[in-house]
Structures are given as C-alpha cells and as structure tokens.
Amino acid sequence: MIYSKIAIDCVVIGYSVQENRFKILLIQRNNEPQKGAWALPGGFVKQTEEFETTAKHILKKETGIRNIFMDQLKAYSLTGCEDADRIISIAFFSIINMEKVKSDEAEQYSKWFDLHKIPKLPFDHKNKVKDTVDYLKMHVNTQPYLFKLLPAKFTLNQLQRIYECLFNVSIDNRNFRKKAKQMAYIEKLDELEVNTSRRPAYLYKFNPSKYKQAFKLF
To answer: What is the pTM of this model?
Structure first.
C-alpha cells in the first residue's frame, strides 16, 4: 500500500580509476509506463521512514548495491493530467569508486553507462542527471566528493585525471601540481608508487580533519 505520492529517484555516479571514466547506474524498467526504457533506480515511499533509508532500500533491491553514502539533491514537482496525479519526486545522489563498491548478487536489470553516452531517459530523469553533475562541478572544491573516489594513497596525476574527466577538459600539469601542493589537506608521503613502467611518483593522502578546518565544515 502506498501511503503518499512521494517518489524517490537515485542518481548513482561511479568512477573507475582503472578506466579513468565516469559512469551512471541505470535500470531497465520492467513495468509500464516506459516499460523497457533505461531509467534511474526509483520507487515510491511505502512506509514511515527517512527518505534516505527508502533510497538505500530501493537501490539495494533494484541494483544490488548497498552500504554507500547518499545525499539529497533536491525535490521535484511532477504533475499529471489530473490534479490527483500530482506527486513529489525527491532525488538522492551518490558518487562512488566502482572498484570499491559493495554489491550483493548482480541485478540483471541494472547496467553502468558512460556518463557522456547516456541513452534516452524517461520522465524527468535527464534533468536529474544534469542537476547532479552540475552540483558536483559546483561543489567539487568545497566538498570531499572526489577524494572518495581515490585510493587511500594516490598520486597527483590520479587526482588531476579525475578533475579532467569530470569537467571534460585538459589541465596544465605543472599548474595543477603547484596548486595541489598548496592544499594543506593533501599530504605528501615518503612513499613512491609501485608497479609502474614509468618513473615512480610520490604518493599523497587526503586528511579529512585539515579539510574540515580549511572549509569550516562542522
């Protein structure tokens, strides 16, 4: 039984360090309307619980992905032909390292798509994906989202590649390294990368305490 016409949609963006590529997780709808279309994982609120909890339940049921952080993006008003068809849709998003994500048995109806090659989406899902990407770009320097995608120990080249991939631009290596080294929350380690065919680079780590201090995030 549905107690209220409140829908939850999940925008899950994954980053593959190995491929240096952002992807989005979609499901193939098996019910009308838009049966067979690729869409965001979603569903209706069916019980009294926090919306974030509902989003996580939906994501686990439809994709097998579990135990990931989710932030609320915004609420959307969807209006049908009749006033009685009016519903509220709340979008949640997550940005994850695809090599680290925990998943139950893979769901046959879910699939990762290249973020720049998304199939036609139903309803207002295209807007929700765009709003999520715009939000990430706007807050990339004031929220530690990108550091969740890196290994615990990373090189500055790996960090630069994420920025270039997200903004789809080429960044001058010398200027990027100079700016990165000025950030107190990026700490250089006395270690070099291993298993590389090129000259090994120094490794760095992200310090969340210094990050909070820098942006006064309490």
So the answer is: 0.86
